[in-house]
Q: What sequence folds into this?
């Protein structure tokens, strides 16, 4: 079951910023700015960092979660650092324009470049790299493997 | 104990975002020195050198060479870019080697548990706040987890601490433990029955009773 909020104040939300032809088509609009929070590994030892911005659907998060669960079963721990708060609406096919906003289709997380998507701990670096590479394959963004920052 | 690194710094006469950005393009990092009731000194340091000190040497205590003057400083804060690749600013605090400081020290796990029994290693604390003289800041607190077992976590009070170092975290705080994965997974799983397809919408409560009462 993909993630979604338990309770919401409103069923539908506004789209947000959407500009740029290529990115709009591929990622449903670029997201302005960089991730100012959640941009470093905080809970595990290694993480997967998004290098691009966009919407990350709850199905994608679930796909990453299943991949990680199968890989780390009985060895390490993983953490999901994003949550799909945003309802995405769509108008059905072969429908005339107008007549109001479409119905919610899925839930998505707004991801900005630099956001840590998943973290993993309790595994050696080589295994963590292997695991997060499999997860990155399922993500709609370019991602990179990151380790903890040196603690100063 | 950490090694004392040496770093060359040059005064930075111009401040501001644009000047700092130009410095970074030249391979330098803007930094500031403060403390000991002396005026603040804006300086520029080599990015390569500070990167080596932070990532490789893991030193916090630095002897800064500023126009021939030697100053002992502590790296108080390091600012990173949004991707965590490059250092963009450093705060240095003037300190003497005998002065007590409060810093964050990483915890390093050594070996692997002998009797894991299918449990998963969980480390809630990756760093601890410590108070110690500047000269004896440990590089890391290394914990041997060979004898770690389920139900017997390693707590802060069990950490091997060098003399002169005091940990500021609560003594009962768990550093590392073995968790049975099934328990967490069952708790996270949805309860049996109908799975919700859409979230509940919060609606305002109608004040019908109050209005009826007024009438």
A:
């Amino acid at each position: 079951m993909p993630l979604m909020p338990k309770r919401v104040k409103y069923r539908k939300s506004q789209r947000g910023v959407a500009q740029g032809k290529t990115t709009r088509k591929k990622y449903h609009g670029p997201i302005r700015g960089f991730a100012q929070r959640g941009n470093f590994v905080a809970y595990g030892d290694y993480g997967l960092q998004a290098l691009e911005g966009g919407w990350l659907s709850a199905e994608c998060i679930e796909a990453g979660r299943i991949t990680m669960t199968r890989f780390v079963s009985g060895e390490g721990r993983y953490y999901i650092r994003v949550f799909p708060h945003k309802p995405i609406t769509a108008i059905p096919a072969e429908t005339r324009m107008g007549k109001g906003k479409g119905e919610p289709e899925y839930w998505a997380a707004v991801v900005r470049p630099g956001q840590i998507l998943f973290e993993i701990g309790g595994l050696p670096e080589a295994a963590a790299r292997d695991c997060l590479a499999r997860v990155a394959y399922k993500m709609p963004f370019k991602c990179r493997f990151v380790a903890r920052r040196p603690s100063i | 104990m950490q090694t004392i690194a040496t770093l060359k710094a040059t005064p930075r006469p111009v401040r501001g975002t644009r000047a700092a950005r130009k410095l970074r393009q030249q391979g330098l990092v803007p930094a500031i020195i403060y403390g000991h009731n002396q005026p603040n000194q804006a300086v520029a340091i080599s990015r390569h050198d500070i990167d080596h000190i932070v990532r490789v040497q893991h030193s916090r205590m630095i002897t800064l060479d500023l126009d021939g003057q030697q100053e002992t400083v502590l790296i108080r804060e390091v600012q990173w870019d949004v991707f965590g690749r490059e250092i963009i600013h450093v705060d240095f605090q003037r300190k003497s080697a005998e002065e007590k400081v409060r810093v964050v020290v990483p915890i390093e796990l050594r070996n692997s548990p002998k009797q894991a029994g299918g449990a998963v290693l969980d480390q809630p604390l990756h760093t601890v706040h410590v108070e110690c003289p500047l000269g004896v800041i440990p590089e890391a607190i290394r914990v041997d987890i060979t004898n770690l077992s389920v139900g017997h976590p390693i707590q802060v009070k069990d950490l091997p601490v060098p003399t002169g170092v005091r940990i500021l975290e609560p003594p009962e705080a768990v550093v590392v433990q073995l968790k049975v994965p099934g328990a967490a997974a069952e708790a996270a799983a949805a309860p049996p029955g109908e799975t919700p397809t859409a979230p509940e919408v919060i609606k305002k409560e109608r004040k019908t009773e109050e209005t009826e009462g007024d009438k």
Q: What stands out?
A: Residues 89 and 104 of chain A are 4 Å apart (CA to CA). The mean pLDDT of chain A is 88.
